[in-house]
Amino acid sequence: MHAEIAGAGFAGLVAAIALRQRGWTARVHEIDTELRAFGAGIFIWDNGLRVLQAIGAYDAVADGAYAAPGYRTERNGVCMSFGKVNSEGHFRLLTMSRQHLYSAILAAARRAGVELETNSGAIGATPDGVLHLADGRRLQADLVIGADGVRSAVRESLALPGARKKYIDGIIRVLVPRGPLVGGRWDEVIDFWAFAPRTLRILYTPCGTDSLYMAMMAPVADAAASAIPVDPDVWASCFPDLRPALEAIGTKGRYDVYETTRLERWSAGRVAIVGDSAHAMPPTLAQGAGCAMMNALGLAVAVEGVSRNDLPAALAAWEARERPLTDHTQSSAAHLAATRALAEGMPWDSDVFRAVRHVPTGT
Ligand SMILES: Cc1cc2nc3c(=O)[nH]c(=O)nc-3n(C[C@H](O)[C@H](O)[C@H](O)COP(=O)(O)OP(=O)(O)OC[C@H]3O[C@@H](n4cnc5c(N)ncnc54)[C@H](O)[C@@H]3O)c2cc1C
């Protein structure tokens, strides 16, 4: 059995590796001229780490990732919550550069014998299992996977009903040297919030041994705070302790408004849609890649040993099994994005962490 996959992001690569592990052949088409990750840092919780273990990428990810001792939320300088992570009885949470995570998954894909094509953009697919490429090729497969991100061409070509949404906030993501921010609380993840003199948030985390990842949230309506290059004075007016890191940003960074997708169905015939193309969510719970990887692995498990004729039914069964958790996580993330409720502290014992506690299919 053979799969043609659009998009060499986390979802596309994990699906390809998991299919190869189950005896399929898999070819991944990436529109970019290089295989690389976009963005700065990333948080991967327990559930995503389990998937990385299942596809043989965990050791390379853990080697060089950062395991913080705790996760603190501060609002206008006041500690709102603190939770331990990465110790007995607590969630695992690794932070790393996106490129570090991507390189580890890409190496696992190469080891697994996944075929990779760059400069190979998809323009659509048909439910009978044909992937259409921008260079004119029409590739017949037993299974086509649209893992081509939030603006998915494969999804759009199938005209699957669904909704896309933008939010009131956006984020600038940067990696900078840790500089003097080392030791004590500076070794923790710190979710800094301020509502005066303006509404801003910096999710601060060491990322690897000597670099620091900052996800800097600013309202779309705040032109000065959402501007690139970052103005250190604007941000230091809320977070003076972070001035050394803010001044190290220079011209780096890009401001991205949160975008989400929710589809009525995740498949059409023998085409499956997975990852951000199916279920992009606001980054409030840091679960977009976690859910993308869980569903990509779950997809491979669902089609294992299934005959060609039974594939469409297997895709429906995959969605029925995996979707409730993704819908729940996406809705929780959307609520937290719309209300900025994380400023009150991390709701550690609440159901918003259902995905983190989940043991993913195939792990
Ligand atoms: C600010 C922010 C912070 C985030 N932080 C976290 C976090 O800490 N933890 C977490 O789990 N998630 C996080 N996420 C979410 C996470 O980045 C995404 O959910 C994840 O990248 C989705 O992976 P994907 O493979 O589905 O899509 P993508 O990563 O977007 O990959 C899609 C791939 O398809 C390629 N492509 C696009 N169009 C085509 C085409 N037509 N043909 C072929 N290839 C194509 C793209 O170039 C890309 O390589 C964050 C998101 C944002 C916006």
TrEMBL record:
One of its GO terms (molecular function) is FAD binding. This is Monooxygenase. It comes from the Bacteria. Residues 5-308 form the FAD-binding domain. Keywords: Monooxygenase, Oxidoreductase. SUPFAM superfamilies: FAD/NAD(P)-binding domain. The keyword ATP-binding does not apply. The keyword Cytoplasm does not apply. It comes from Reyranella soli.
